[in-house]
Design goal:
The complex is a heterotrimer of chains A (318), B (313) and C (237). Chain B is mainly alpha-helical and 313 residues long. Chain B has 13 helices and four strands. In chain B, a hairpin with a 2-residue loop joins strand 2 and strand 3. The chains are: A mainly alpha (318), B mainly alpha (313), C alpha/beta (237). Chains in contact: A-B, B-C. The interface between A and B is large, with 47 and 47 residues.
Chain lengths: 318, 313, 237
């Protein structure tokens, strides 16, 4: 996981490029694509904390995404009549989603590898089923038709309306989460995560409280999804259970793997690739998932450390 | 309450039928896990493909102007190609998508992710070649609806009896093979201590391939049976069926063949009982909750033994 | 019969065997002695193909076997009684022995039955416990089972990795008596041991392995007799 950071100037250049990107976009649709990239990159960074840093294979990450989205909807739409301002809703959603991370993570603490994966997958599925079915007897989630009429984010009374606005909001959030991830990686908890990832038993023997560390990974990872969820809800102005299928979990996971688990910029690049490629190959849309599945297999067999990782180590071999 | 009791026997029959099929499919998971310690995530898709092969055979046979379409000869004719095809598919998966990974040693994450990729790939391959709409098994042409008997207030159709019979026969056959034959012993030896088995002269790679073949073939057979029972199949049916069969395998103790059969039965019965008492929309939740409970409380499952060492950290 | 010539074996970049040369002739009992981490088990693994040598040759009955798959080497007639027994705990005694005869599936049924008899004669207690699971046997019984299992293959060369480990002295003597008996019946044996005196008492020749190198090679009698060698290498293990 110790990798050479990319040089400061390169990061600055990238940042600059990101700032002026909308000017280079051919049309508004593509600005929307860029906004989506930032959104998914944030999500991928969140999963990266759980999978890449702490080594916990979470196959149900979409649950947090969905929980965050729907929570935001409950607080800022006509559904329950609550219209809390964006800057109030966002932190609340983040905290609550982080809490859901702890709830879902708790039962998995003693499980290893693939069992952990299956349990988290199960939780993801349960979440989806709840979202789609909790419209009776009391209508909580709006059922299969979801909820519409969500408030857009408003800062100082001005509501965001164009894709460009959203792009900059998401970009700002991405920047913050990137920073947070980088700081976390080299913090005490980051080292704890790395130790757990390499050999949990040894980590415990060294005195690391693996329970707390793992729960923190889940919580923080989930909180990023909470951000992403809020963004999705407020941008799309609606939420549907179909937004939160298992395939989405795998999609986000693929971004992390593609970029190299633990590699921050790689993960962002992975998100960029997996969001933009389907756009580029729009006509071949029907083959998208087919290619996706093939990609996962090929990646694991030939280049498990990710396409964009600088490391020579295999992702699965620490 | 009275009406619940009235339908209870019928639900139990459903549960039994379903349970034997879950068990059949669960065997595929358990055999592969027992020998490689990996979850063949694509097994659900193998099951689904078996259902499609069965459909094709039936569709072909229905075109032939044969007056007497009797399940006695049609059913084996459906099962055989399905099992051979899915068996071969399983072997192919092992050879190209898994073997390069587990040979590297390392952790189980690589093979699992590759398996997920295979699962997505197969699902979509079937969708693209067979269409996204469901296909219908013309079961009633094979098993007339009036072929049924009454047992204790439940109407048991001939189809159910045949299903349970076929599944039970296959499971018994597998049991015999594993317990009584040299091949079976070599499988158990490889599962227990791969290196030692090689030192005794066992061709480990061939045994692994054979295990995949058998487990996948059984999954394919399960697909045909489910197709006949539910009459509707689609490219997505492998996903939830796969997870449920996996739950059954874990419930019984993963790696344990008798456990898979037992787990299947229990899951089938629990599921149909649960549906009797609550909103059927949450049917799938039952399986997932059961899975999570088992893995968290007793990962060894009901009949499992030292596999627990691998489940917990 | 078995010849290692200048064998190097590495685990990753770590050299474990360095230029090891040894020979086992037909009908002999040869023992390979050494302390912990001297490379004894690695030598066994190299012979069996579990680990590939990075240099040198391993020859069996004139043919090179280094680089061949383990199961192929096993079929050439080399059997192993592994360190720590490693019997199949989830199989019965009978099934374990049957697995031992795995390489002899083409042999006439009568022969395998004879081998079972041979094992029952050597180890009557195993016959009593035929249908018990291997995991339920005591340490000593498991050792017997491990030996019996290896014999079922009618090996031309029998490798034994620390047969005395974890056994009470009385059992150790028993085991080595049995080894001598097996050799008397015509099986060539290579024994790897830490318990030098006992091993040398039945062996024809001995090699001493230290840090991956063969440091001494002589007849067993000479090794037992020479004082300085006893003190230096066969000391307090």
């Amino acid at each position: 996981m110790a990798q050479p950071g990319i040089p400061r100037w390169a990061a600055a250049v990238l940042g600059l490029v990101a700032l002026v990107a909308p000017l280079a976009a051919p049309n508004d649709y593509w600005i929307g694509v860029m906004a989506r990239i930032c959104l998914y990159a944030t999500l991928a960074l969140g999963l990266n904390i759980v999978v890449g840093f702490a080594g916990l294979l979470d196959l149900g990450y979409v649950a947090f995404f969905g929980i965050g989205s729907y929570l935001y909807t409950f607080l800022a739409s006509a559904h329950f009549g609550l219209h809390l301002p964006f800057l109030v809703t966002l932190p609340i959603v983040i905290v609550l989603t982080a809490g859901s991370g702890v709830l879902i993570g708790a039962p998995t603490l003693r499980l290893a590898g693939d069992y952990l994966a299956i349990v988290t997958l199960g939780f993801g599925e349960i979440t989806y089923l709840l979202l789609i079915n909790l419209d009776r007897p009391v209508n909580i989630t709006g059922g299969p038709s979801g909820i519409v009429g969500i408030d857009p984010p408003a800062v100082a009374g001005v509501a965001l309306s164009t894709n460009t606005h959203y792009y900059y909001l998401f970009l700002a959030a991405l920047g913050l989460t990137l920073l947070a991830s980088a700081r976390l990686r080299h913090s005490r908890i980051g080292w704890a995560w790395q130790a757990i990832r390499e050999d949990e038993l040894a980590a415990r023997a060294m005195g690391i409280d693996t329970t707390v560390a793992k729960l923190q990974a889940f919580a923080i990872g989930a909180s990023f999804a909470g951000i992403g969820g809020s963004f999705l809800a407020s941008w799309q102005r609606s939420v549907f259970p179909e937004n939160f299928l298992f395939t989405e979990s795998i999609n986000i996971l693929a971004m992390v793997i593609l970029g190299g688990m633990g590699n921050l910029l790689g993960v962002v690049a992975g998100a960029a690739l997996l969001v933009s490629l389907p756009e580029v190959f729009r006509d071949l849309q029907r083959y998208r998932l087919l290619a996706f599945g093939l990609m996962l297999m090929v990646l694991m067999v030939f280049r498990p450390q990710g396409l964009l990782s600088f490391e020579r180590k295999e992702a699965s071999d620490d | 309450m009275a009406d619940v009791l009235a339908i209870l026997p019928q639900q139990l029959v459903f549960g039994l039928a379903l349970g034997t099929v879950y068990g059949l499919v669960a065997l595929g998971y358990t055999m592969v896990y027992g020998i490689l310690f990996m979850i063949n995530f694509a097994h659900g898709e193998i099951f689904m493909i078996g259902a499609y092969v069965g459909w094709w055979v039936l569709a072909l046979l229905l075109q032939v102007p044969v007056g007497a379409l009797h399940p006695a000869w049609v059913l084996p004719l459906m099962l055989l190609p399905a099992m051979l095809f899915t068996g071969a598919l399983g072997v192919g998966l092992e050879r190209f998508a898994y073997r390069p990974l587990y040979l590297r040693g390392a952790t189980r994450l690589g093979p699992l992710i590759s398996a997920i990729g295979a699962s997505i790939f197969l699902q979509n391959a079937v969708m693209l070649t067979q269409g996204a709409r469901m296909k219908v098994y013309m079961t009633s042409l094979l098993f007339p609806r009036d072929w049924r008997i009454q047992i204790v207030g439940a109407s048991v159709s001939a189809l159910v009896i045949v299903m349970v019979g076929v599944a039970a026969l296959m499971m018994w056959g597998l049991h015999l093979l594993v317990q009584r034959t040299t091949l079976g012993r070599s499988i158990r030896a490889v599962a227990e201590d791969r290196e030692m088995a090689a030192i005794m002269g066992v061709n480990v790679r061939r045994v692994i391939a054979l295990t995949f073949f058998m487990g996948s073939a059984l999954g394919g057979a399960g697909g045909v049976l489910v197709g006949l029972y539910y009459t509707q199949i689609d490219f997505f049916m492998g996903y939830s069926a796969g997870l449920k069969a996996f739950t059954a395998a874990v419930l019984g103790g993963i790696g344990n063949i008798r456990g898979a059969m037992l787990g299947g039965l229990i899951l089938g019965l629990v599921e149909s009982l649960a549906v009797t008492f609550m909103n059927p929309a949450y049917k799938d939740v039952v399986a997932f909750v059961l899975l999570i409970l088992v893995l968290v409380i007793r990962p060894t499952g009901l009949l499992g033994e030292s596999m627990a060492a691998r489940a917990k950290v | 019969m078995l010849k290692l010539t200048d064998v190097d074996t590495h685990y990753g970049r770590l050299p474990v065997l360095k230029s090891v040369s040894l020979e086992v002739r037909v009908g002999e009992i040869v023992c390979l002695l050494g302390g912990n981490a001297s490379g004894k088990s690695t030598t066994m693994k190299t012979i069996l193909g579990v680990v590939r040598p990075t240099a040198g040759r391993v020859e069996f009955e004139g043919d090179r076997i280094d680089g061949l798959a383990t199961e192929v080497i096993a079929r050439r007639g080399i059997s192993l009684v592994p360190e720590a027994r490693r019997i199949f705990a989830r199989m019965t005694v009978w099934e374990n022995l049957s697995m031992g005869a795995f390489t002899r599936q083409k042999a006439p049924a009568g022969e395998v039955a004879q081998d079972f008899e041979r094992v029952w004669t050597l180890f009557p207690r195993l016959k009593e416990r035929q249908h018990q699971l291997g995991g339920t046997l005591s340490g000593g019984e498991q050792q017997m089972l491990a030996i019996g299992r290896a014999l079922m293959a009618r090996p031309r060369l029998l490798l034994m990795d620390e047969p005395s480990m974890g056994l009470a002295p009385v059992l150790v003597d028993q085991v080595f008596d049995i080894i001598r008996a097996i050799n008397g019946q015509g099986t060539t044996i290579l024994v790897v041991e830490q318990n030098a005196p006992v091993a040398l008492s039945i062996a024809t020749r001995g090699y001493v392995l230290q840090n991956g190198r063969i440091v001494i090679h002589d007849t067993a009698r000479t090794l037992l007799a020479t004082d300085s060698i006893r003190r230096a290498y066969l000391g307090e293990d």
